[in-house]
Recover the amino acids of this structure.
């Protein structure tokens, strides 16, 4: 999830011991002998969470399924779920390599060093690491510009709020999360300058109970539209019960809030996986860095909820089209920081390098950045 | 009633909700440990309770049956633990840890089809005019039924352990199983019963999460609450009334820090606020440990030790 330097964020959801043993058990289970009849390309996936998390790992597995659907028997895929970030990850990745897999995707920030270590041992096998920043001749990296989606939901939130208070449930203070909060706030204030965004940190990627309480705390403070950068659908569910609006995260969470969810930022890895497998097949694969967004379809928006008025849909579509066409960048100035100082001049855009290390809030964000 | 009072009432009610699953699980563990058995499998039993409650409520449409299923699932897990540690004499710490790991995996496995399902949550009791009394109304009469059940169970466990003859026997088994055995009490049977009670209560704690607190099933949704419940038992020095106090303190700090953040009222880093419940536990542990008699009076002397009737 995280990308760029400065992170050693663990995306583990369960007790270390539990995951370690589970991963061990599953590693043997999932890596059953692979047939090589028509000599298919063998593609392995390493997930940090369970495929049933309804969030991050779930979406990567959807990508794997898209791969199988696209290539049929020309590929053979396998995955290991619930792999802890650490020594165990190296063992799992190594096992893929030993079994003669051609391409291995490791899908969490904490798999960075284990991936590089194994890649060094197997120079003929291709590796792809999600959200990291270290590459090698046979290690590519990839991540998604989720902040583009946040600009769309910010626009919608700014137009739909009646209280002018938006709630934001934040996980851990890494640049990716800060980018999201800022993109959301900038977009909301563009359409509604009176908007304030209240941020509550739950200091966890996944704790349904705490996420729900954070949602309720924000609602108690007058927030009538919620956004979240945590993985459980609990905030969407809370919004549904309280009769306010919310945006889903990572996957379409409309099931948990059919009226509340206005849309959801959906991670869509399938197209990328298909493109990379194609490249591996025709020999054009290179160890590049990919940071794609709406344009390439890596960031995808769930269908609008029934509560979204046509005017809001039209504006959201306009923002989306602008971002895709390259005429609109969520981080184009003028941008002021929380102290009201102009930090990005009119017409200037924050370059990628600075986005990747973003550690300050824009004007309109209420709450502090834990440091 | 002004907005501030209303908000404060909401915060206090949220604190009580956050504390309730901890109260269930910790009360069960108090009973288990008072009988001299240390069961570290609380998290696993809670998860099984959560998934069983949700599955039963979805398939039958009845949250009450969900609660029954949760208690049964917790007891099944506890029975496994009891069989391993009391009959086969396995090490309690290792078995308890294994139980948690087992529960995490098994609940994820049996709950695969339940992810994304929705269930009608257990509704709050509405007592008409009583619930509408300002402040006092919602605080006293506006909760979901399980909040009251948790309070009643705390009173029941307190009475049982401190005032009843059977409770005295349980404590005797926890203090000195050899002596209890010599007088003719069925030590093993009593421990089985205490462990099963702990399982049922953990199951209820899990059910509270999946049916009331966040009415859904997602893998690992307890997010460490089983471990907090275990810490709470020590924090409460094995007394039911202090479990209540500790749970409200733990729940209270968690909720208070989220509300402080959203109101922008306090310039304290949120990580420090997140740490507070644990800092408080350590502080209390240090304080009560200074007074040796307090610890000695309450900690079951044979906690975690194996009992061989022959010996």
């Amino acid at each position: 999830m995280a990308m760029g330097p400065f992170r050693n964020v663990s995306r583990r959801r369960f007790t270390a011991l539990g995951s370690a043993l589970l991963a061990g058990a599953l590693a043997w289970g999932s890596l059953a002998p692979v047939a090589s009849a028509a000599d298919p390309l063998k593609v392995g996936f390493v997930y940090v969470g369970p495929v049933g998390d309804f969030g991050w790992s779930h979406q990567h597995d959807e990508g794997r399924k898209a791969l199988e659907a696209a290539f049929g028997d020309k590929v053979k895929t396998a995955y290991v779920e619930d792999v802890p970030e650490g020594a165990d990850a190296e063992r799992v990745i190594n096992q893929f390599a030993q079994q003669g897999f051609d391409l291995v995707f490791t899908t969490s920030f904490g798999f960075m060093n284990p991936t590089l270590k194994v890649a060094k041992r197997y120079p003929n096998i291709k590796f792809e690491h999600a959200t990291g920043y270290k590459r090698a001749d046979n290690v590519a990296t990839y991540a998604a510009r989720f902040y583009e989606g946040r600009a769309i939901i910010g626009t919608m939130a700014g137009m739909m709020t009646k209280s002018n208070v938006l709630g934001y449930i934040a996980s851990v203070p890494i640049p990716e999360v800060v980018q999201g909060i800022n993109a959301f706030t900038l977009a909301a204030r563009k359409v509604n300058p009176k908007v304030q965004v209240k941020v509550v940190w739950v200091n966890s990627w996944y704790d349904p109970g705490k996420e729900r309480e954070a949602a309720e705390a924000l609602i108690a403070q007058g927030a009538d539209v919620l956004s979240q950068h945590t993985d459980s659908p609990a905030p969407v569910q809370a919004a549904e019960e309280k009769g306010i609006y919310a945006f889903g995260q990572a996957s379409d969470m409309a099931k948990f809030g059919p009226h509340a969810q206005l849309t959801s930022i959906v991670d869509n890895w399938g197209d990328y996986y298909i493109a990379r497998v194609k490249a591996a097949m025709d020999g054009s694969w290179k160890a590049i860095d990919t940071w794609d967004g709406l344009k390439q379809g890596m960031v995808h928006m769930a269908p609008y909820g029934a509560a979204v008025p046509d005017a809001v849909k039209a504006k959201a579509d306009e923002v989306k089209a602008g971002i895709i066409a390259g005429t609109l960048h969520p981080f184009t100035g003028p941008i002021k920081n929380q102290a009201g100082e102009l930090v990005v001049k009119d017409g200037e855009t924050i370059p990628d390098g600075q986005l990747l290390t973003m550690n300050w809030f824009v004007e309109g964000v209420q709450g502090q950045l834990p440091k | 009633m002004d907005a501030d009072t209303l908000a404060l009432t909401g915060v206090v009610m949220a604190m009580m909700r956050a504390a309730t699953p901890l109260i269930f699980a910790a009360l069960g563990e108090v009973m288990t440990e008072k009988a001299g058995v240390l069961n570290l499998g609380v998290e696993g039993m809670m998860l099984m309770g959560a998934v069983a409650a949700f599955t039963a409520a979805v398939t039958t449409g009845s949250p009450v049956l969900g609660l029954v299923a949760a208690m049964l699932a917790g007891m099944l897990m506890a029975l496994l633990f009891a069989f391993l540690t009391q009959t086969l004499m396995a090490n309690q710490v290792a078995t308890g840890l294994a139980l948690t790991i087992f529960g995490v995996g098994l609940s994820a496995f049996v709950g695969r089809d339940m992810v994304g399902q929705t269930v009608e949550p257990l509704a709050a009791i509405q007592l008409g005019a009583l619930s509408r009394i300002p402040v006092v109304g919602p605080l006293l009469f506006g909760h979901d039924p399980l909040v009251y059940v948790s309070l009643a169970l705390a009173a029941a466990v307190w009475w049982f352990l401190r005032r009843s003859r059977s409770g005295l026997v349980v404590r005797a088994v926890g203090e000195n199983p050899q002596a209890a055995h010599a007088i003719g009490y069925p030590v093993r049977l009593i421990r089985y019963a205490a462990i099963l009670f702990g399982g049922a209560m953990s199951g209820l704690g899990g059910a509270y999460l999946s049916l009331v607190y966040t009415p859904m099933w997602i893998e690992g949704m307890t997010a460490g609450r089983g471990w907090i419940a275990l810490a709470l038992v020590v924090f409460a020095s094995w007394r039911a009334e202090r479990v209540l106090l500790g749970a409200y303190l733990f729940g209270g700090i968690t909720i208070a820090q989220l509300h402080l953040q959203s109101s922008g009222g306090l310039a304290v880093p949120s990580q420090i606020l997140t740490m507070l419940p644990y800092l408080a536990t350590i502080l209390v542990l240090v304080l009560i440990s200074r007074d040796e008699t307090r610890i000695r009076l309450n900690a079951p002397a044979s906690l975690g030790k194996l009992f061989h009737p022959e010996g």
DSSP finds eleven helices and 15 strands in chain A. Chain A has two domains: 16-144, 147-267+304-366. Chain A touches chain B through 46 residues (CB under 8 Å).
